[in-house]
Amino acid sequence: MSNENLIEVVNLKKYFNVGKNKILKAVDDVSFNIKKGETLGLVGESGCGKTTCGRTILGLYAATSGHVYYCGKDVHAMDFNEKIKFKKNAQIILQDPYASLDPRMTIGEIIGEGIDVHFKLTRIERQRRINELLDTVGLNQEHASRFPHELSGGQRQRVGIARALAVEPQFIVCDEPISALDVSIQAQIVNLLVRLQKEIGLTYLFISHDLSMVKHISDRVGVMYLGSMVELAPSFNIYQKPLHPYTKALISAIPIPDPKIEDERKRIKLEGEVPSPINPPEGCKFFKRCVQATDKCKNVSPQLKEVEKNHFVACHQC
Amino acid sequence: METISKEKFRRIQIDYKESEKIARPQIGYWQDVWRRLKSNKVAILSLIILVIIVFMTIIGPYLSGYDFKEIDSAKINQRPSKENWFGTDELGRDIFARVWKAGRVSMVIGITGALISAVVGTMYGGFSAYFGGRVDTIMMRIVEILISVPYLLVVILISIITDSRSLGTMMISLTLTGWCGTARMVRGQMLQLKSQEYILAAEALGVKPLKIIMKHLIPNVLNVLIVSISFDIPGYIFSETFLSYIGLGIQPPNTSWGALASAAQRNFIFYPYQLFFPALMIALTMLTFTLLGDGLRDALDPRLRE
Amino acid sequence: MDKILEVKDLNISFHTYAGEVKAVRGVSFDLNKGESLALVGESGCGKTVTAKSIVRLLKEPPAEIKEGSKIIFNGKEDVVKMSKKRLRSFRGEDVSMIFQDPMTSLNPTMTIGQQIMEALMIHKGMQKNEAKKETIKLLETVNIPNAEERINHYPHQLSGGMRQRVMIAMALSCNPKILIADEPTTALDVTIQAQIMDLLGELKNKFNTAIILITHDLGVVANFADKIQVMYAGEIVERGNREEIFYKSMHPYTWALLNSVPRLDTENKEQLYALRGTPPDLILPLKGCAFSSRCEYAMEICLERKPVETRLSNTHSLSCWLQHPDAPKVNRAEVLRGEMNE
């Protein structure tokens, strides 16, 4: 890992208009950066904006305001040719292995699609490349002529990875790549991602709601709540010393596969559910569910501040 | 427990890739559709009847040995007999030859009409759905206006303007607004597909919009499109029949099922068989196309694949 | 303890274009009154099929419950042979089921109050007023705040967690003796998942309902299940009580499941243990042990003959050739510390 930032996100905002005077603030003023060769984890519950954040970084959604820099270039201000070049370098792996593969294309065609856009290969070279990619993700050549519905969930997700790898990217947004899979298959996919990172030197933004997996794969973890980053720290710190009350609750909700520990564990129970991101309240967004909330939390929105080296948290109480 | 030789308890190396192999035979999409359609008896029966009807519209007029416009004043209004299988009409023309000749016109109108509206509707609907936003709004308002124009009015206007009542003019006037339904349906379907993750993945790969429409969206609306075509064909046939029946359609000496029915209707009380045969053909064609469409819809539904 | 459910030699096949898929092969188990049982395994291992067959929710055909399969309810009735009329009252009154996605099992055009009241009026013959009161009480039992207001809401107005609570309330409306929960928390966020699991535990004690929980995640059942059965490729490969599965399990597949959950409380930077390969397609005839194609400890015998069931205690048993006296010994503790990674 070098100290060079591959991705810099600066005050990124993505709002959606969802009707009269209703603004859904999916990503609300988020800033962070990702170093070359690093894995940054992004966790949070559904509706916290982590997926939107990932897609806006890739330029798949236009940002409402703020900037995303890839190698110093603003992704949202690129011209057509630069954008195509960027898309070759920055790829995405999607969540649902059933919906993310075109049911009418064979696996070979799916993987070959990106190759056709960015490389000029002869038919034989192209076929060889597809076979190579299938082999990388642990599938056989025979799979190339099959259709997605013939594959298991884990196999499909590996096809999704092969499709992203086909254009030889440097940066991959893994958008909940494991949440639709069985636990035993999740490990398979995560190991594959880790191995690829070591071999090709990829940089990941790993989005998931599963803090334990995120902690395992990431160097640093960012916790999002209702469109804001509430805590950002090296992954072991996040577990060892969570500071934000939301992070604490999130960690305590994760089951541990050990009955003795589970039986003794006291859960921090969160009252209620995640409020709607449409017209969110002033002040701290976690205010209503927080046990430590004060009047200040109600009125003033906390900013992300560095409380320890590399450990950022947005909470008035920390 | 019986004894098992110790040899058997040696560790062996497992090739994990073996377990990735797919056991089931490879089966293409259309093969699979055909397999499911085959299991639907009603649809297959409809298909067989349809094939026979289409086949007969091609060769039927030459079978009876009479030309469809051959007038024989000696044999007016004959009942069905060995000589004239379906009988003769008031001018002594052989109804058997006429029914199939008329069917040819009806089929041509039905099939080409449905194909034209499928092509135009898909392009229009696809364009509208893919670009969305304001483009979509404007394009769909145009469709709504077109749909609200009664097609009878269009037919009359076109025949006045072009001063012709040929097959071509009728095709134009029927398809002029006929594609709107398809366009709406394709747009709805594509809007749904557009939010699919594989479209997002293609966009992230940098695939160009036109290619996304051609390679992802259209193949995936193909199934609903085929169903819509099979429902559109009887619609066009019926429209043509109706127009011919009220005298706005095919003009003599050419004929169609509607024109036959219209002519026969005058003598219906005395010679019911003159009406029976064209009416039977109309009903049979409409019914079989609709039933086949139903069968196709079930066979093409990807959710039913297993 | 009284047995509320006995499943004996359950065999279920699906008939597809490519042939017969033997989805469940010789599954037998008992469930006592008020007990919680977890069926754990990967998707396609037959756990959902087994559960659905208990309420006869499988579409037959293509599914077929084979001759000789018995599902004895309450010691006397065989579910496989039940009449359609009896099945209607059996589902709901005796056994209810909740599913992974509550949205698909709720009617979007009716308020949640109407839906629960309907169940009460049909199964319990209650009057409207009485049913309404009972509905509010039920919603309060599953910790839905403002129950009186909530009964007028439609499913789409509720969050995923709320919907699952409504489903649970509906399932409990007729005091069933068995509640089958098919991956009830998979579609939910972790914090909500914890809430729902706690709720199921509370309700089990309160109503003395037996619960069959189906999941792919052993972590979820760590503080929930009395008994755990691990399924693989349509068979139960290991069964035992909670302690036995978590601390004394001997089947390599159970180890794999335990190991593939990353632990938050340990600092393991090394590779996660991952099962390689893909489960076998049950359309093929299986020779030997179904797991042998992915097992690290596979021996020649595993490819040739099906392992016999070995009993380790009254409650703990497994099917694996490693239990044979001639088999090489594998140190369980070492395996579970993650040292079998290369």
TrEMBL record, chain A:
It holds the Pfam family oligo_HPY. GO terms for biological process: peptide transport; transmembrane transport. Gene3D superfamilies: P-loop containing nucleotide triphosphate hydrolases. InterPro entries: AAA+_ATPase (IPR003593), ABC_transp_ATP-bind (IPR050319), ABC_transporter-like_ATP-bd (IPR003439), ABC_transporter-like_CS (IPR017871), Oligopep_ABC_C (IPR013563), P-loop_NTPase (IPR027417). Residues 7-251 form the ABC transporter domain. GO terms for molecular function: ATP binding; ATP hydrolysis activity. Keywords: ATP-binding, Nucleotide-binding, Transport. The keyword Cytoplasm does not apply. NCBIfam families: oligo_HPY (TIGR01727). This is Oligopeptide transport system ATP-binding protein. It comes from Lutispora thermophila DSM 19022. The lineage of its organism: Bacteria, Bacillati, Bacillota, Clostridia, Lutisporales.
Automatic annotation (TrEMBL), chain B:
It comes from Lutispora thermophila DSM 19022. This is Oligopeptide transport system permease protein. It is found in: Cell membrane. SUPFAM superfamilies: MetI-like (SSF161098). It is a multi-pass membrane protein. InterPro entries: BP-dependent_transpt_permease (IPR050366), MetI-like (IPR000515), MetI-like_sf (IPR035906), OppC_N (IPR025966). Keywords: Cell membrane, Membrane, Transmembrane, Transmembrane helix, Transport. The lineage of its organism: Bacteria, Bacillati, Bacillota, Clostridia, Lutisporales. Residues 103-293 form the ABC transmembrane type-1 domain. GO terms for cellular component: plasma membrane. The chain crosses the membrane at residues 42-63, 107-130, 142-161, 167-186, 217-238, 275-296. GO terms for biological process: transmembrane transport. The keyword Transcription regulation does not apply. Belongs to the binding-protein-dependent transport system permease family. It holds the Pfam family BPD_transp_1.
From TrEMBL, chain C:
GO terms for cellular component: plasma membrane. Keywords: ATP-binding, Cell membrane, Membrane, Nucleotide-binding, Transport. It comes from the Bacteria. It is found in: Cell membrane. It is a peripheral membrane protein. The keyword tRNA processing does not apply. GO terms for molecular function: ATP binding; ATP hydrolysis activity. Coiled coil: none annotated. InterPro entries: AAA+_ATPase, ABC_Ni/Peptide_Import, ABC_transporter-like_ATP-bd, ABC_transporter-like_CS, Oligopep_ABC_C, P-loop_NTPase. Belongs to the ABC transporter superfamily. Residues 7-258 form the ABC transporter domain. Gene3D superfamilies: P-loop containing nucleotide triphosphate hydrolases. It comes from Lutispora thermophila DSM 19022. This is Oligopeptide transport system ATP-binding protein. One of its GO terms (biological process) is peptide transport.
